[in-house]
Amino acid sequence: MSYTKLQWWERFQKYYTEFPSLGLAVDLSRMNVDDAFFTAMEPRLQKAYAAMDALEKGAIANPDENRMVGHYWIRTPALAPTPEIRKEIQETKNAA
């Protein structure tokens, strides 16, 4: 990628994003991406979001073991898919 200083600055302004609540910043300006990349990735991102939403709601993540995966429920029991799981997590945390 061979850009002028002005073009680099414009790319930085366009492809730099801060997430203050996470204490995170992402700078894609030096990567080989453009608007077409994001358009092409949109269907894959939507599929990933849907899969994550299903996992958070208790979908079976490991069919061989027939179990859910909810390690993030431990941090936020309100995300647990059932009242029983939520209660068990909260009771375990309270006992610790």
Form type: elongated
Q: How many beta-strand elements?
A: 4
Nearest-integer average pLDDT: 93
Q: Roughly how many Å is the radius of gyration?
A: 20 Å
Task: Please bin the fraction of helical residues.
Answer: 40-55%
- Our measurement of the CA-to-CA distance between the termini, rounded to an integer number of angstroms, reads 54 Å
How would you classify the helix and strand content by structural class?
Answer: alpha+beta
Given as residue ranges, the uncertain stretches (5+ residues, pLDDT < 50) are none
Widest sheet: strand order?
A: 1-2
Q: Which H/E pattern describes the elements? A: HEEHEEHH
Question: How many structural domains can be distinguished in the coordinates?
Answer: 2
Number of H/I helices: 4
Largest sheet properties: 2 strands, antiparallel
Strand content: 5-15%
Structural description of this entry:
- This protein is α+β, with helices and mostly antiparallel strands.
- It has two domains: 1-32, no CATH class; 34-90, no CATH class.
- The chain has four helices and four strands; from the N terminus they run αββαββαα.
- The protein has helices at 5-15, 35-56, 71-75, 83-95; strands at residues 16-19, 24-27, 60-62, 67-68.
- The strands form two sheets. Strands 1-2 form a two-stranded antiparallel ribbon.
- A hairpin with a 4-residue loop joins β1 and β2.
- The mean pLDDT is 93.
Task: List the keywords.
2 domains; single chain; 96 residues
Short description:
The chain is an alpha+beta fold. It has four helices and four strands, in the order αββαββαα.
List strands and helices in order, with pairings:
Blueprint: H1 5-15, E1 16-19, E2 24-27, H2 35-56, E3 60-62, E4 67-68, H3 71-75, H4 83-95
Antiparallel strand pairs: 1-2, 3-4
